[in-house]
Amino acid sequence: MRMPTASYRGRARFPGLHNDSIGSLPALLIAVALAGGYCGAGSARAQDEFRLLDSPAATPAKIVIPPEGEPGEPLVISGTIYQPDGRTPAAGVTLYVFHTDAKGVYSPDQEEGKPPKPRLQGRVRTGADGRYEFRTIRPAAYPGGDTPAHIHAGVSGRGVRYWINDYWFADDPLITPKQRKRVDGPEGSGKVIVTLRRDDKGVWRGTRDITLKKAETTP
Question: How confident is the model at residue 57 (pLDDT cuts 50, 70, 90)?
Answer without folding.
Answer: low
